[in-house]
Amino acid sequence: MATDIMPAAAGNTAGEGTRAAVxxxxxPAGLLRFSTAGSVDDGKSTLIGRLLHDARAIFDDQxxxxxxxxxxxxxxxxxxxxxxxxxxxxxxxxxxxxxxxYFATPRRTFVIADxxxxxxYTRNMVTxxxxxxxxxxxxxxxxxxxxxxxRHAAIAELLRVPHVVVAINKMDLAGFEESAFEAVRTAFAxxxxxxxxxxxxxxxxxxxxxxxxxxxxxxxxxxxxxxxLEHLETVPVAVAPTDASARLPVQWVIRTGSADPDYRAYAGxxxxxxxxxxxxxxxxxxxxxxxxxxxxxADGPLQRAAAPMSVSVRLTDExxxxxxxxxxxxxxxxxxxxxxxxxxxxxxxxxxxxxxxYLLKSASRTVPAVITAxxxxxxxxxxxxxxxxxxxxxxxxxxxxxxxxxxxxxxxYRDNRATGSFILIHPATNATVAGGMIEPQTFSxxxxxx
Length: 450
Description:
Layout (H helix, E strand, L loop, with lengths): L30 E8 L5 H11 L5 H13 L14 H6 L6 E6 L4 E6 L7 H8 L4 E7 L6 H12 L4 E7 L8 H18 L4 E5 L23 H7 L12 E3 L2 E3 L10 E5 L4 E2 L4 E5 L3 E10 L2 E3 L2 E2 L3 E6 L10 E4 L5 E12 L10 E6 L2 E14 L6 E3 L9 E14 L10 E5 L6 E7 L12
Parallel strand pairs: 1-3, 1-4, 4-5, 5-6
Antiparallel strand pairs: 2-3, 7-16, 8-9, 9-15, 10-14, 11-12, 11-16, 12-13, 12-15, 17-21, 17-23, 18-19, 18-22, 19-20, 19-21, 22-23
């Protein structure tokens, strides 16, 4: 991510988040993707249900189904059932997968990923947080910061999630006392400072009763910050950096739809920077130079296209360009590498071992890959690095060295999430076995300029 950050401060007042020097942000209106995480029974699904219910974002038939299901269970209205969509989840009373929900207010549109709380579903937390602009970490005020809280905070930092909200829940069971809130806030602030989390905001809530979820609560007069929804509607959202060097991974080659028999355009989404007709660009990984002839969309030609727009580009020279290539500005192009150093989370029941061969997909390009070493395993509870483990098991996170069977154009994940991340795919089953974030160590040797 192309932002400058400051570590979280332990001395925040209630409701105030540490301020990150985010250099490229969008207007508060638009789309916010956020994930929820917390320990089992901290109230994640109840919070999402309450948020949607009080924001009037539940359809009448959905509400009727929830009311009916609640009656069969001998309960009053159980809003957690809105996101606990799988029958097995309802029977067990836990969330075992990532449940996605969508809703909108007059100020913003939201995509919610409700991730599971059990330690064995760490991979689902990574899935839910990988595209998030903000992560809500729920903490039961009675239990405080526990192992899963540390796990979720560490994953948020590893994924470079720009904003973290610590929703200190079940304040009704603590008598809405400020001292109970402050004890948890202080403990989490110490954890955040050690991790270097970029932006942390603390909100006391009762998801069951709705206090400080959509409307500010009158039962906590000592809290002067926003309700959760108000914060979600106004938090600035980092966007793809338009002042960075351009990146356009090619997803599709367009040959039809024009009277010109020689028509050829290259379609994809701009992941950084901006492009203009006449710009000199590189086609990577081959490193050939050319210029942009035109930029086109369904609405017609453009004189300027910026991240994160989806466009098709025509080039002035005839050359072999296909899916998986990257069109980039000549200044500060991505590195062309055949070996990666990356933090990875094992998403498969099969451990990641040195010598294991996979397909690696980054942006639109897929290349053969082999794991050459597991440098360390991250202990989520202590945040210590365990050197040279024999493998990474399911849900474990560690540092890998990966050798590629073909050149790949990449950036560091901290600079660009789209061109700095990848997945590993089993070549026989096509299953996704790991997700990775490219580390700066990959570029310790300065690549030659094309």
